[in-house]
Specification:
Rossmann fold; about 45% helix; alpha/beta; about 250 residues
Length: about 250
């Protein structure tokens, strides 16, 4: 059990699968007190049961991060359950790729609502609590796409660039309150993210690319590393790819 993680109250969005689920299990094994949010209740309930059966502590609340009230309920639920909020991992995200000329405007809107507004709602919910505590850690999941743009992924990349810009601006503003910020930028990770690609040809291309994906626990370990550093150390960004990934 990691002594710098044990006892920390951690809120995770997008916790029902992939990076969120794996990170929840990893942090629970290190003694974190978890409050988990996602849209799929049955997956959340199963995850909470698994963590509790392994001796960990977890609660969950159905959460759609595109709704500010949902995110506020999640964060306030964590504080009511545990008395404080030490870490939020704004992890929920979707990737419905498409070329501009297909005009998938509804997909653009959903990406902005979840990938950008969802992160902002998480920040808005925890910031007053962490300011009052004079401590906290806000971890925002971006992507390699937050560093690079490819044909067909411009809107997704724009949302992930936005996460990095938001996080860097936040980092500079929260110094007086002892709050830390971390950007996690994964490359190809074996999760359900590819399932959110709605265009069949682009999903096929994405699945071929993700053949080199590495397990989500590599990101869980990176997140745990950032959390477990002492309070005077602020791990601001981790960019992590499979060794075989060229871009």
């Amino acid at each position: 059990m990691n002594g710098l993680i044990a006892g920390k109250v951690v809120v995770i969005t997008g916790a029902s699968s992939g990076i969120g689920e794996t990170t929840a299990k990893h942090l629970a094994a290190s003694g974190a007190l978890l409050f988990l949010g996602a849209r799929r209740k049955h997956r959340l309930d199963a995850l909470v049961d698994e963590i509790r059966n392994a001796g960990g502590k977890a609660h969950a609340l159905v959460t759609d991060v595109s709704r500010r009230a949902d995110v506020e309920r999640l964060v306030h639920g964590a504080r009511e359950a545990y008395g404080r909020v030490d870490v939020i991992i704004n992890n929920a995200g979707i990737m419905p790729l498409s070329p501009f000329e297909r005009l998938k405007v509804d997909d653009w809107d959903r990406m902005i609502d979840i990938n950008v507004k969802g992160v902002l709602y998480g920040i808005a919910a925890v910031l007053p609590i962490m300011k009052e505590q004079k401590s906290g850690h806000i971890i925002n999941v971006s992507s390699v796409a937050g560093h690079k743009v490819r044909p067909g992924n411009a809107i997704y990349a724009a949302t992930k660039h936005a996460v990095r810009v938001i996080s860097e601006g936040l980092r500079m503003e929260v110094k007086p309150y002892g709050i830390r910020t971390t950007i996690i930028s994964p490359g190809a990770i074996a999760t359900e993210l590819v399932d959110s690609v709605t265009e069949p040809d682009l999903q096929e291309r994405a699945r071929a690319f993700y053949a080199l994906a590495v397990p989500a626990d590599v990101i869980a370990r990176a997140i745990a590393y950032a959390i477990s550093e002492p309070p005077e150390v602020d791990v601001n960004e981790i960019l992590l790819r499979p060794t075989a990934q060229e871009f």
